[in-house]
Structure formats: structure tokens, C-alpha cells
Design a protein that fits this description.
The complex is a heterotrimer of chains A (295), B (225) and C (467). In chain A, 39% of the residues lie in helices and 24% in strands. Chain A is α/β, with parallel strands linked by helices. The longest helix of chain A has 18 residues. In chain C, the strands form two sheets. In chain C, strands 2-1-3-4 form a four-stranded parallel β-sheet. In chain C, α7 crosses α9, α11 packs across α13 and α18 packs across α20. Chain C starts with 14 loop residues before the first helix and ends in a 17-residue tail after the last helix. Classes of the chains: A alpha/beta (295), B mainly alpha (225), C mainly alpha (467). Chains in contact: A-C, B-C. At the B-C interface, α2, α3, α5, α9 and α12 of B face α4, α6 and α8 of C.
Chain lengths: 295, 225, 467
């Protein structure tokens, strides 16, 4: 199911975790790793000058610069590139989220893997609402895997997947992805619904009733199609906390969630987005799925 | 000398001056090119005329255009100078006497005191215009000898006229000098920047047509000059 | 007559030459060659004689040297009011001298003219409003640019820009396939959120044909998607042409009139092919000026009008809000002080000063809109107009030029600036990057989408039915 993995990297250490996961998957599943680097963000009208994504400095992209960037990337990921059978470096200029989406579409990628820097307002953010991650997660046709920290990328293959559902339409796609991954890679799967009781006063009986209802709903909504290594949990609390707790308890090495926030205003989206909170806190990669095409 | 200057020379002067100005105006209009100027004058003439007249009126009335409001002091001097320059010669009693002698009719003459006042306004105004050319760097940089010369040509008839009027020195000499300098001024009109007596209207009209046709007029918004 | 390999009198006509020029990083070799470029005085003089008619001649001649234009020029204001920045001086010392010398000028003079024409004037036409004689120096500078371009004296980026238009018929290397593909992509990307959304390509006899700026498909196709969403919600019968969709004209900034004509004919032929009732362009100032205001003249249309009514995006938006095709949810209106940047190219140059304010009356909570001072047709250039934004060699001058807009914005006390023009938008972004005054800026499309009252049948189904 993973034939082409698109690794979006700036080449900076914050993306090393993502690179480790991407290359490891490439090695294990014989996938092609496409290393995408958006060299610069055009900001000076129609001029040839771009802002380097890492330094923010103004550079002009020519063959020489291109060659230098390619060389840098090759050096940075030297061992990893050698470890996989197929890999390719794609260099481009533009706005990162847009170019990631473009490359994923052009190459028909099965999975996008990217790092998640903690959202500083880097050069390219100016004037565009939403972080690169939010924009990619929202629009990508394929699942998007985010590796926030290098420690979150500890990788020895998949053993345990936590799928967190909010019963949205997008969650159906996320479930399909989680199940297919679990089946194909022969892992355990935990289906979790976090009953959101933050900011609400509910008596214990009502909470318990709701938990029972949610369990029932999971059983009817998600057809396991004979898959056995699966259990269902419903925990109450603040969703992102419960999801992270569950992942820790099960020593999960992958969390799968649905992404369906249309809100791109960073101020509003950041507070509201469970997914982003999970990404920041989880000790393993997080896959977000928002479209049914590639699951 | 007086007869000669007020006779054939004056006729020739009028011919050259007014004829020349008419030629300038005709050449200007004929030289307009809808394609190069990028203004469709003819098909949108109504919009053009409206825009053109608005444009002229805005700059003809003191303090109407935004420009005139930004520099009230200059505006005052500038209008006083131009009004003096135009009104005095036309309504001066002495000039109208000549008109009457030649054609048998005359325009209403203004009181001598007013005429004197206006002449002084011209002189003082001219002086200020010269001084600002020296004083302000943004004017100094574009000023050349020619600008001073034109200023001198324009105020000379008033200076000589006043000298003659107050009978300082030889009256006949200053009278002739006055007539001569007036004729020089008239002859200069079509051949120098003084052609703006007519070209001001045409140039303003043109830009007004541009705005009236292409730059908003046909969209129903009037330029706020 | 020495002409360089890159810097010469021949426009870039082939992809090969374009790539060669692009590969010259920062125009280093280009500008070296410029130092040795000969002036073809005979050609220059012939060209002046053929194209300088009574309007421009008179303008040059009757300038009273009064200096009243000085204060009207924002570049004069921000550059310490040095007299060399007086518009009259700038044009007299360049075009004026060139004419006086009957084209017999040297390389150094032409280089001085080049700097003056592209780094000391943005062709904002503001001075023309303040000259008693109605002398529009912006128009003359545009004319001078044409003369300079024909002699090869043009900044590197603009030589390339005009070349792009000649080679790709777009200001960036966006081919017809790229464009069509981008439209499909954007429809696909947003169809879930906006059921039924499509970007109809080459639909004949539609009510609207939409054209845009090549930077949209190239770098932020969201803009194309946003236009589509708004047309979709408004229920418009619209289309984009597969060919002739690019409305901008860097060739206008460069003074490549031949190329300008080609650009605009390309758009008009799309109109003739698809027969829309009218055409609408994107939120771009110079694109509108090139295709709608000046374009008809380049195309030789005697009535000075495009083949069908061709309106700016703000005109359509105002109309859609006025007629209720688009409805704003009053709760989502802007509730913070907000100001508006009037684009010279369609406000001073086409009088569209009221429609933008009409739009604001729908999307801004009453009392929160603050006018810049001065505003409307008296507003100052954003600081990056006329090609200034993109010329690397004049970046320092451009950054200085941004100061006027900065002062104006600071004086409004607003943190949000609405800039319905690509060039202004860019300049204001750069302004923030350069001077960090803590402002945000936006086109109208994303703002309006964010506050739409979307009719029930256009909303996505089973959305967030459960938490």
C-alpha cells in the first residue's frame, strides 16, 4: 500500500525524524522515497529572488544553487538514501504547502511524510493563514504522516496502531487506512473514541451511558471484516489528552486520525485542532487522513 | 516713432501673435493621436468634453483644485499675477482710447487707481515668482535662464508702463519702450512657453478628456481634481 | 555596433534565449554588457519623430518649471525632498534632453534615463493631477520606457518579464497545460467543501469569462479556487479560457509595446472564441490596466473599449453583494480597524474609487473602516508599482519608496490592510518584512469567503454531525 512516499523536508534537523520514518518505511516496504525540498519562497513579485526556507535570506535560484542544495540533501541523508532501493530528490521553489501538494499530486504519492516544526512564523508564512501542515493535511488526497520530534520516530516497524475516531465522515477514511495498514503489516489495532467532556458538567451515569453508546456505535460503524487483533476503547476527557494517553499505554507506534478542520486562521485553528495537539505531544508518528482516495 | 509702433508694427504684432496662437492651437489638435495618446477622443466625444471642461474649470478657479488648496500662498500670488497680467491691458483706459480711435468702439475702462494697483500686483507678483525660483530647491533645479527671461518679458510692459504713467524720466521714451515691450510680449506668445495662454486650455482639455473617457469618466466617476 | 549576448536591442523571443538570460544570476553579465551597449541615435530619433506627437511635445515645451509637482510625488517626499526627485526635473533631464539632442545621446545618459524611469518613477500618474498645465509625467515616463526598451536599456528582470510574455504568453512559465491542470486540481481540491464546484474551461457563451494573473496558477492557485468558489456561490454561469487567461503585462512595465499588443490580442481572441457576455479580471491593478484600460488601444480598437464589457474583480464583487448573489453573515464582518489600499491602476486610472468602498460597507462592521489620507484618486502608490517590486538592482530604492505607504498605514492605526491588487499586496507584504510594523493584509476574495452566508443547498452534506 505504500509504493511512493513523499518526504517533505527542508533539510533542517527538525525534519530528521520524518526522514527516518520515511526511509525506514521505504526500506521495509520497498517503496520509492521522493525527497521534496522547496528551496525558496518567491516573495519579490516577478523577480527571480526567493527567500531561502531555512535562513530566510534572499537567494537567486540557478543551476549552481540547485546543485548545491541537492548536494547538501544528499550529504544529509546519505546513509538513508543508500538504504532504500528507489529514491529521488525533487527540488522546487514556491510556497511549501502548495508545492508539497503539487508534488504529491503529480507523483501520485501514497503517503506524505513531513516534520512539524512547532509553528514559528517562518518566512513563507507571512500573509498566508494556516501552517504548512494544516494546509497540506486539509487538501492532500493521501494520508499525511507527521513526525514531530526525532524521538517520536523511533522505528522498528509497526506493532500497534491507535485509531482515534470522532465519527466524522473523514474518520471513515481514516479507519479504512488504519485497518488496511494493520492488516497488511499485521499489527494490533486499537479503536478509540475520546468522549469530549471538557468544559461540560455531566453526571457519572450520563457519561457511562454515552460511553456505552459510543462503543456500540464503533462496533456498528466500523466493519473489521474479520480482522481479529483489534479492541475498542472509549475514554472520556479532553480528546487530545486521551488519545496521547492511550498511545502511550499501548506503546503505539502510529496514531491515525481524521483531519477535517476547514479553519485555516492559525489563531482559531490551533486552539481547536485536536490533531495538532496530538502531533505536538505524541511519542510516535501521527497520520492524518481527510480524503478517501488513497486509503 | 510712436505712430510707427502703434501703426504698422502693432498690426504686424497682432497678426503674428494671434495668428501664431491660432496656428499653435490647430497644430496641437491636429497632432493628437487617439492611438498614441490612447484616448478614444472621437467616439466618446461627449464624455471627453465633459471631462475636459471639468478639468479646465477646476484649475481656472482659485482654490478649486486640490493643488490650489495645498499651497494657498502661492495660489494667491499666482492668481493675482495672472489676473493682473490679463485684465490690466484689456481694460486700461489708455488702451481703450486707442481701440476707440481705430475701430470706433471700446471696452469699459477701469478706474486708474485699480489699473495702477493691478500693475503693481503684476510687478510684485513677478518678483515673488522670481524669488521662489531662487529660494526653493525644487524650483531652482528646473529653472533656467529662459524662465527668468520670460518673466522679464512678461512684466516689462508693466514696469515701463508705470514709469511712463508716473512720468519718471522722459515720457516719450518710456511710452515707446512700453509699447515696444508690449509688442515683444505679444510676439513671444506663440513662439515661447507663453503659448500656454492657449495651450493651457488645450493641454488641460486633453488630460480632462483622458480622464473623462478612459480614466473613469465612462465608468461614471468624476475625477476629483 | 556592439550588442551583448544577453543585453541587446532585440527582445527575448525564444525559450532558449529566455533560459540563457535567466541563467545569468542577478543579471551580472547582462549589466556588464549594458555598459558597452551602443545607442542607435538615428533609430532613436526616428522613433521619437514618429511617435512623439503634439500632446507629449506640448507637455515638454510648456512646463512652466513651477515645481508644484514636487510635493505630489511620493518618491520626492520619502527621499529627503531632494530636488533631483522633482517629477518635472526627472522627465526634463531625461526625455526632455533626449529630444533636445535629437537622440544623439550616449550610453551613460541612457543608463541614467533607465534608472530614472524605473527607480524614480512608478508611473502612478499622481503628478499629473497636480500640474496646472495638466502635464502627466507618468504617461511620459511610460513613453520613455518604451524608447529605452527599444534601445536595450531595461532592467534585467523586465527584459525577462517581457520575454516570458513573448515566449509563454504569461508572465511566468505557465503553459496552457499547466493552467488547465491547475484549474482541475483546484476544483478537485475544493469540491468536498463546496459540493458541485467546478472550474469550467472553454465553455462557450457563458455569462462571464474570468482571467487572472499567472502567479496565481504558479504559486498560489488558492486564488483561482477562491474565485471559483465565489462564482459558484453566486450562481454565476462562468468559464475560464484555456488560452488567453493571463491578463497581466510585465511588457507594459518594460515598455515592450509590441508584446503588450500581442498579450491583449491573445485575451481578446479568447473572448471572441468563447463569446462570453462579459469578462472579469482578478484582483490585480496593472493586469486590469493592461487588458481593459490601455489594451483596447494597443489592439487598435477605435472606441477604446474591449470587445465585451470587461470589469475588474471589485466591480463584480460589489455587484454580487449589491444584488444579493453573495450574502454576508453580519456576525462575521470585520470588527477591527481596517484600511483600504487604492490601486493607482484602476482607481486613479479608471475611477473605480466607490465600488471598493461599497464592498467594504458590506464586509466591515460600520465604524471600523478607516480611510488612508489621502485616499481615492489622491492616494499614493503602494511603493512597488510600475515594476518597481521586481527589480533587484533597485531594491534599496524600492524599500525607501515603501515608507510613504508605511506612514499612511501607521497613521490610520489599522492592523489590517485590504489590498485588492497583486502589486500593492506584494509591496505591503514587503513593507512588513522590511519595517515590521505588525500589520496583516489581504485580498478581498479570502475575506469574503470567510464571511459568506452560504445557502443551504451549497453546503457540504453530513458535515460534523457529531463531535
Amino acid at each position: 500500500m505504500f509504493k511512493k512516499i513523499l518526504l517533505a523536508t527542508s533539510g533542517a534537523p527538525s525534519t530528521f525524524g520524518a526522514a527516518r520514518v520515511a526511509f525506514d518505511m521505504g526500506k521495509r516496504y520497498g517503496a520509492e522515497v521522493l525527497v521534496l525540498n522547496v528551496m525558496g519562497v518567491p516573495t519579490k513579485a516577478y523577480s527571480q529572488v526567493v527567500n531561502d526556507v531555512r535562513t530566510g535570506e534572499e537567494v537567486e535560484v540557478d543551476e549552481e544553487y540547485r546543485a548545491w542544495v541537492e548536494e547538501e540533501l544528499k550529504n544529509t541523508f546519505e546513509k538513508q538514501i543508500e538504504s532504500v532501493e528507489y529514491s529521488r530528490i525533487i527540488l522546487t521553489t514556491g510556497l511549501p504547502h502548495r508545492e508539497i501538494l503539487r508534488a504529491a499530486r503529480e507523483n501520485d504519492a501514497d503517503l506524505i511524510v513531513m516534520g512539524a516544526s512547532s509553528g514559528d512564523s517562518s518566512v513563507y508564512r507571512k500573509g498566508y493563514p494556516g501552517s504548512t501542515l494544516q494546509r497540506v493535511a486539509k487538501a492532500a488526497r493521501c494520508p499525511v504522516m507527521t513526525v514531530h520530534r526525532e524521538t517520536a520516530s523511533y522505528w522498528g516497524g509497526f506493532g500497534n496502531i491507535v485509531f482515534a475516531t470522532d465519527f466524522s465522515k473523514q474518520a471513515e477514511s481514516a479507519f479504512k487506512f488504519a485497518l488496511a495498514t494493520a492488516r497488511e503489516l499485521d499489527t494490533d489495532l486499537t479503536i478509540l473514541h475520546a468522549l469530549d467532556i471538557s468544559g461540560k458538567v455531566l453526571d457519572q451515569n450520563e457519561i457511562e451511558d454515552r460511553i456505552i453508546a459510543a462503543r456500540e456505535r464503533i462496533r456498528t460503524a466500523y466493519d473489521l471484516d474479520g480482522f481479529k487483533n483489534c479492541d475498542v476503547e472509549v475514554w472520556e476527557g479532553v480528546p487530545y489528552v486521551e488519545i496521547v494517553k492511550m498511545a502511550r499505554e499501548r506503546s503505539a507506534d502510529l496514531i491515525v486520525m481524521a483531519h477535517h478542520s476547514h479553519e485555516l486562521d492559525p489563531e482559531k485553528a490551533r486552539i481547536g485542532s485536536t490533531m495538532e495537539q496530538v502531533i505536538l505531544r505524541a511519542g510516535c508518528p501521527v497520520v492524518s487522513v481527510s480524503k478517501p482516495d488513497k486509503v | 516713432m510712436y505712430d510707427f509702433l502703434t501703426g504698422p508694427v502693432l498690426w504686424a504684432t497682432f497678426l503674428i501673435s494671434f495668428g501664431g496662437l491660432i496656428v499653435r492651437a490647430v497644430l496641437y489638435v491636429r497632432g493628437l493621436d487617439w492611438r498614441l495618446d490612447r484616448v478614444a477622443y472621437r467616439p466618446n466625444l461627449k464624455y471627453g468634453i465633459r471631462g475636459g471642461l471639468r478639468s479646465i474649470v477646476a484649475f481656472l478657479i482659485p482654490f478649486k483644485a486640490r493643488l490650489w488648496q495645498t499651497r494657498p500662498g502661492f495660489t494667491l500670488i499666482f492668481f493675482a499675477f495672472h489676473i493682473g497680467l490679463l485684465v490690466t491691458p484689456i481694460f486700461l483706459e489708455a488702451h481703450n482710447v486707442m481701440l476707440k480711435q481705430a475701430f470706433g468702439f471700446s471696452l469699459p475702462a477701469m478706474p486708474t487707481g485699480l489699473a495702477d494697483g493691478l500693475a503693481w500686483v503684476c510687478l510684485v507678483g513677478g518678483l515673488f515668482l522670481a524669488l521662489r525660483r531662487i529660494a526653493f530647491p525644487e524650483v531652482r533645479i528646473i529653472t533656467n535662464f529662459y524662465d527668468y527671461l520670460l518673466l522679464v518679458i512678461s512684466v516689462l510692459p508693466f514696469a515701463t508702463g508705470l514709469i511712463a504713467r508716473y512720468e519718471l524720466g522722459a515720457y516719450d521714451f518710456w511710452l515707446c519702450a512700453h509699447i515696444l515691450s508690449g509688442e515683444i510680449w505679444l510676439i513671444c506668445l506663440p513662439f515661447t512657453k507663453l503659448s500656454h495662454v492657449i495651450l493651457f486650455f488645450l493641454s488641460r482639455m486633453q488630460l480632462g478628456m483622458d480622464y473623462g473617457i478612459k480614466r473613469g469618466g465612462m465608468k461614471g466617476t468624476d475625477m476629483a481634481w | 555596433m556592439p550588442e551583448g549576448i544577453l543585453c541587446n536591442k532585440t527582445p527575448i523571443k525564444t525559450e532558449e534565449q529566455l533560459k540563457l538570460t535567466l541563467a545569468d544570476k542577478g543579471g551580472k553579465q547582462y549589466y556588464e554588457e549594458l555598459n558597452n551597449l551602443d545607442v542607435d541615435s538615428d533609430k532613436l530619433w526616428a522613433s521619437i519623430q514618429a511617435t512623439m506627437k503634439s500632446r507629449t511635445k506640448t507637455w515638454l515645451e510648456i512646463c512652466a518649471h513651477c515645481g508644484l509637482c514636487a510635493e505630489s510625488c511620493f518618491l520626492y517626499q520619502v527621499n529627503g525632498r531632494v530636488p533631483e526627485q522633482v517629477p518635472s526635473y526627472k522627465i526634463q533631464s531625461t526625455l526632455g534632453v533626449m529630444v533636445k539632442k535629437k537622440g544623439k545621446v550616449d550610453n551613460a545618459f541612457m543608463q541614467m534615463c533607465m534608472e530614472t524611469a524605473w527607480a524614480k518613477c512608478t508611473c502612478c500618474n499622481r503628478c499629473g493631477m497636480y500640474c496646472p498645465h495638466g502635464i502627466d509625467m507618468g504617461v511620459m515616463f511610460s513613453y520613455l520606457r518604451g524608447l529605452l526598451y527599444s534601445q536595450g536599456f531595461v532592467p534585467w528582470e523586465l527584459k525577462i518579464g517581457a520575454g516570458m510574455h513573448r515566449v509563454y504568453r504569461a508572465q511566468m512559465d505557465v503553459t496552457t497545460e499547466d493552467w488547465v491542470e491547475t484549474c482541475e486540481w483546484m476544483a478537485e481540491e475544493n469540491e468536498e467543501e463546496w459540493p458541485g464546484l467546478e472550474i469550467p474551461i472553454d465553455k462557450e457563451d457563458a455569462d462571464i469569462m474570468y482571467t487572472c494573473n499567472a502567479r496565481e496558477p504558479k504559486h498560489y492557485p488558492e486564488d483561482v479556487a477562491e474565485a471559483a468558489i465565489l462564482f459558484h456561490v453566486a450562481g454565476e454561469n462562468w468559464t475560464v479560457p484555456s488560452e488567453g487567461w493571463e491578463q497581466t503585462s510585465l511588457s507594459m512595465f518594460a515598455g515592450d509595446w509590441e508584446c503588450c499588443k500581442d498579450n491583449v490580442l491573445n485575451v481578446y481572441s479568447a473572448i471572441e472564441r468563447l463569446r462570453p457576455k462579459r469578462a472579469i479580471g482578478t484582483e490585480c491593478g496593472h493586469a486590469h490596466r493592461a487588458t481593459v484600460i490601455e489594451g483596447p488601444y494597443w489592439a487598435g480598437r477605435e472606441d477604446g473599449q474591449p470587445p465585451v464589457p470587461y470589469i475588474h474583480y471589485v466591480e463584480w464583487l460589489a455587484e454580487a453583494l449589491r444584488t444579493g448573489k453573495l450574502k454576508i453573515d453580519p456576525a462575521k464582518r470585520i470588527k477591527e480597524p481596517v484600511t483600504l489600499q487604492d490601486s493607482c491602476n484602476y482607481v486613479r486610472n479608471q475611477g473605480l474609487k466607490n465600488v471598493t468602498r461599497e464592498i467594504l460597507s458590506y464586509i466591515v462592521e460600520p465604524g471600523y473602516f478607516v480611510e488612508m489620507s489621502p485616499s481615492k484618486e489622491h492616494n499614493y502608490c503602494c511603493g512597488g508599482g510600475g515594476g518597481f517590486n521586481g527589480i533587484g538592482m533597485y531594491r534599496a530604492q524600492r524599500n525607501m519608496a515603501l515608507r510613504k505607504k508605511m506612514e499612511q498605514i501607521l497613521a490610520t492605526g489599522c492592523k489590517l490592510v485590504i489590498a485588492p491588487c497583486h502589486n500593492c499586496w506584494d509591496a505591503i507584504r514587503d513593507l512588513e518584512e522590511e519595517y515590521k510594523i505588525g500589520i496583516r493584509w489581504s485580498f478581498l476574495k479570502p475575506l469574503v469567503i470567510g464571511m459568506l452566508d452560504v445557502p443551504e443547498h451549497l453546503r457540504p452534506k453530513d458535515e460534523g454531525e457529531d463531535e
